[in-house]
Design goal:
By secondary structure, the chain is mainly α. The protein is about 90% helix and about 0% strand. The chain is rod-shaped, with a radius of gyration of 43 Å.
Length: about 100
């Protein structure tokens, strides 16, 4: 009988130890879950920032391309004006302007 009581007490202690161990495991799993949630949130935020940066770079690239096109057009127009001024100068050379 004493041996049975001793075994029951030992079993109770083992159950208590197991319960404590499982509670610790459960707490650690909860901590890991919380860290995973934080990492997931940070990853989403980083992805959002990366997307925003990418969109802004695309906008800058588009603006640069527009400026390049406008510069080419301006250069073409300037060359046309220069040619027209040269032509006009040649035609005006026919007329003599008296100096005062």
């Amino acid at each position: 009988m004493k041996e049975n009581v001793s075994m029951v007490n030992a079993s109770k202690q083992i159950i208590t130890d197991f319960t404590f161990a499982f509670e610790n495991i459960s707490a650690k799993i909860s901590e890991i879950s919380n860290v995973n949630a934080l990492v997931a949130t940070a990853t989403e935020e980083q992805s959002s920032v990366t997307k925003d940066i990418s969109e802004r770079i695309e906008g800058i690239n588009s603006a640069v391309n527009t400026n390049v096109d406008n510069s080419k057009e301006t250069s073409f127009i300037n060359n046309t004006i220069t040619a027209s001024v040269s032509e006009l100068k040649d035609e005006m050379s026919f007329f003599k302007v008296a100096e005062s």
